[in-house]
Write a structure and sequence with these properties.
Blueprint lengths: L1 H23 L4 E7 L2 E3 L2 E4 L4 E6 L8 E4 L13 E5 L4 E6 L7 E6 L1
The protein binds copper (II) ion.
Length: 110
């Protein structure tokens, strides 16, 4: 009986911790696949503070470049790995791979 009580208390504490962390942490990770030759998804919505993680899933070299938007950033040209950016400013971002015409995406941040 005492054991069950302790386990129940532990579970309740874990649930409370989860609820508290969920209430405090608004920022989320948003994953974008960098593929041959497209971004997936092509449209994403973010909240300031969110982290966007682009992951190279194809075989060819690509980059991630903001051509229009409130915050400019640019990855290296590469064919593996990831590129992360924390979105700091609200607005509409046009993001392209400068190597492939038409390989583009839109990020809207609030
Ligand atoms: Cu590309």
């Amino acid at each position: 009986m005492k054991r069950i009580t302790a386990a129940t208390a532990a579970i309740m504490m874990m649930m409370m911790a989860l609820l508290i962390s969920a209430g405090v942490a608004h920022a989320v990770d948003i994953n974008v696949s960098v593929n041959d030759n497209y971004f997936k998804p092509k449209k994403i919505s973010a909240v300031v503070g969110d982290v966007v993680i682009w992951k190279w899933d194809g075989y060819m070299a690509h980059n991630v470049v903001v051509t229009r938007g409130p915050q400019k950033f640019k990855s290296k040209i590469k064919s593996t790995g990831t590129f992360k950016r924390t979105i700091r400013k609200p607005g509409k971002y046009k993001i392209v791979c400068t190597l492939h015409a038409g390989m583009e995406m839109v990020l809207k941040a609030k």
